[in-house]
Structures are given as C-alpha cells and as structure tokens.
Amino acid sequence: MASILDDKDMKILEVLRENSKLSTQQISKKTLIPITTVHYRIKKLRNEGIIKKYTININHKKLGKGILAYVFFIPHYDILKERKMHLEDLVMKVKKHALVEEAAVIAGAKDVLLKVRVNDIDELNRFVVDYLQKVDGISRTETLIVLKSFE
Predict the structure, then answer these.
(1) How far apart are CA 108 and CA 119, in angstroms?
(2) Buried/exposed code over 88-103 (b: 16+ C-beta within 10 A; e: otherwise)
(3) Domains of the chain by range and CATH?
(4) C-alpha–C-alpha distance, residues 39 and 29, integer Å
(5) What Rg do the C-alpha atoms of the chain give, in angstroms?
(6) What is the percentage of the chain residues whose pLDDT exceeds 90?
(7) What confidence tens digit (pLDDT) does each residue in 102-143 have?
(8) What DSSP designation does 100 have?
(9) CB contact set of 25 (below 8 Å; sequence gap of 6+)
C-alpha cells in the first residue's frame, strides 16, 4: 500500500535531497517543523522504505572519471536462451564492471541502459569495444557521451 505524504514529509525530503548530512535540528530550522516531528517523520520515511539510503555527491573529475557516457545495448536473445540465461543475469554481469555506475532494463528501441564514468575516450573505447561488445549475449551497442551534466 502506498504511503500518503503530506506537506511536512515533502519539506523534509526536499531538505534531505539538498543535503542529507544535516542534523535533525538543522532540518527543523530550515523547515520550521518541530524537531521531534522531524525526527519522527524521518524515522517513518525510513521504515516505510521511502528513504532508502543517504549518499554523497561525488566530484568525478577530481577522481579522474570526468567523462560520463550512456551506453545502450541490445541483447542477443538466441544466445541468452541457448545459455539458459535471463536478461537480468546478463545485466547484473555487466553491472559488476568497475566503470558501470548504474544499469537499467528499459522499454523502447534498446533494452538496456548503462551509466558509465571514464577518465578519457580511450578508456570508454576499451570498455565498449574490448569488453562490452565481446560479452556473450550482447548483440549491438550505442554510446552517448554527455557534454554537460546538470546535477
């Protein structure tokens, strides 16, 4: 059953989305919601699975992974069937690669979308040509390089 969120829940979520490191007291000041209410609401949101985890926003350029790319691929379903593999098995195998940040099965002309971060175009080329296109069960790939991201 879906949880019904009110204005207080939404204000708290918006503040946490901006900075999940804030204390309950700081969130209370920003939202003008009493501290005990903030504490209770955050606990409720976690228990209901609405807040799944707290995370950080990484400066990927400083880590040497300044290029973001999205790679679509189309599975070779005959090979998957022959090897008694499901699409999800193939996606999870590819997701384990160190350069893959996210993987999703999607609807449309392509079946899988990968979010990849690399240091340079050569590293992206090695990932796509030397790794991805040689994985059994992948038929075709298409790569999109992000020119500017608005996070």
Answers:
(1) 29
(2) eebbeebeeeebbeeb
(3) 7-47 (1.10.10.10), 67-145 (3.30.70.920)
(4) 13
(5) 20
(6) 88
(7) 999 999 999 999 999 999 999 999 999 999 999 999 999 999
(8) E
(9) 35
Strands, sheet with 67-75, edge to edge from the N-terminal-most edge strand: 100-105, 112-118, 67-75, 138-145
Q: Judging by DSSP bridges, how do beta strands 100-105 and 67-75 pair with one another?
A: unpaired
As a 3-state breakdown, the chain gives helix, strand, coil percent values, each rounded to 5, of: 40, 20, 40
Task: Kindly tell me if the per-residue pLDDT of 2 is higher than 70.
Answer: no
What 59-62 contacts at long range (C-beta under 8 Å, 24+ apart), as own/partner pairs, is 60/117
In the DSSP assignment, the letter for residue 141 is E
Q: For residues 95 and 134, is the Cβ–Cβ distance under 8 A?
A: no
What was the pLDDT predicted at 139? 93
Query: pLDDT per residue over 71-102, tens digit each?
Result: 999 999 999 999 999 999 999 999 999 999 99
**Whether the predicted model's global pTM rises above the 0.90 cut:** no
